[in-house]
Structures are given as C-alpha cells and as structure tokens.
Amino acid sequence: MTTKDATYNYAIRLGDNALILGHRLSELCSKGPILEEDLALTNVALDMIGRAQALLKYAAELEGKGHTEDDIAYRRAEINYHNHLLIEQPNGDFAHTIARQLYLSVFEYLFFTELEKSKDATLAAIASKTIKEVKYHMQHAIDWSLRLGDGTAESHKRMQKGLNDLWMYTGELFEMDVLDTYLLHQHIAVDTIALKAKWQSEIEKILREATLTLPEDTYMQTGSKKGIHTENLGHILSEMQYLQRAYPDAKW
C-alpha cells in the first residue's frame, strides 16, 4: 500500500458519505414540515453534494486515470461504495431524519476538526471549509432535537424512536481498519476511536436537555469499509445512477 493509493481510498470513503447523504436529504425537497425547514434541509443537501464533489475530484486526481468525480460517483457498483450504513438509512418521518442528522453532525464536527490538522494539504483545506458548514448542520440538528424531545408527547415519542432505531449504526463511525491506521501513522487520517468518548458525551448532554434517553448498547451493524451495505444503498443507486446508465457519456 502506498500513501497515494491509501489517500485515494480515504477520499473515496469521505466522498461517499457526503454523496449518499446529499442524495438522501435531496429526497426531502418540498417535503419539509414548514417552508423554512424545507429550505434548511435542501441547503444541507447542497453542502453535502459540494463536499462530495471536492473529495471525489481529489480522488480522481490521485487515481490519475483520466476519470472525473462524475465517473466515480455514477459508475461504481454497490460493493465499491464505502459510505457509513447510518447515512443510507431511509429518511423516515421528520424526527427520524433529525435523529440521523444529530448522530452524524456531532461526529462530523469532531472528525473534520481533526482532519483540518492533516498533513495532506487538500484534505485539510476541504476539512476547513466543511467545518463552517457542519457547525450549522449540528446546531440545526440540536435545535430540532430539543424542540421535538421536549415538545408534545407525540414528538417526544417519535424522536426517541428515531434515536433508538438508528443507534445500531453509530458504532461503525468509530471503526478503524488497516487503511485508517496506515494513514494515521502518516499524519493524514483521523483517529476515530479517540473521538468516541467525546461524541457520546456530547450526545448524552443534548439528549438530557431534550428530555430524551440515550439508547442502550446493542448489536452494532457494520460492514461499509468492506463494501457491505443494507438493501437501502441499492435502491439509492438505482435512482441516482439511472441517467448515466441509460445515456452513458451524454453531453448537455
């Protein structure tokens, strides 16, 4: 494994997270509970797509085979995607969407704060821009968690259910494999194991204020680093890749 090859795969993983969540959130366009929230979720989706474009473009440059970010996004099979399982889960109701955003945005804020220190100048620059966006994403998720958790009995119940249902996918956020460890030693990647205690402490603090309960530890579903996904990713890709597959190399 060379540093260049490892960084290529690392950029792919980070790009896939942004790409798939951007697509998921785009499904909510015109479906927000209020107009302002409809615009907020759409803006988060746009932030994610912009981040995916930057990361996948960098991956294409590292690969050096003349591919573009579009090739990487639209011309891979499901097993070659490496986004977190949490991200590919269906939106569900509004509380379910906010629960997913809370878990992820708190993690991303901690993650990109560390990635900004990377020796890889491009990843560090992308992280620096991303932190500005993630601060908004995190505050948005926190505000809605508080409103739903400490709102009506119905909103409280739905928010707690969303947190409980998604908890099994959070353990994967902190897994490290050979690639992560190799790049960590090169001072390029982030030590996600070291983020777990702080992440859980932050989540607990938010849920306590929202009168919600941290889900009990249970079986954690993993596999994305090996290209193993839930059935949901296949459904996303069948829609997301349709145009490229139907009209390959089309020019507009």
Which H/E pattern describes the elements? Answer: HHHHHHHHHHH
CATH topology: Ferritin
Low-confidence stretches: none
CATH class label:
Mainly Alpha
Largest sheet: none
**Radius of gyration from CA coordinates:** 18 Å
Write the CATH architecture name: Up-down Bundle
Which class do the helix and strand fractions yield? mainly alpha
Q: What amount of the residues lies in strands? A: under 5%
**Total E-strand runs:** 0
Cα distance spanning the termini: 39 Å
Q: Give the count of structural domains.
A: 1
Helix content: 55-70%
User: Please, what is the CATH homologous superfamily?
Assistant: Ferritin, core subunit, four-helix bundle
**What shape does the CA trace take?**
globular
Top keywords for this entry?
11 helices, 0% strand, mainly alpha, Ferritin, 252 residues
Explain briefly what this protein structure is.
By secondary structure, this protein is mostly helical.
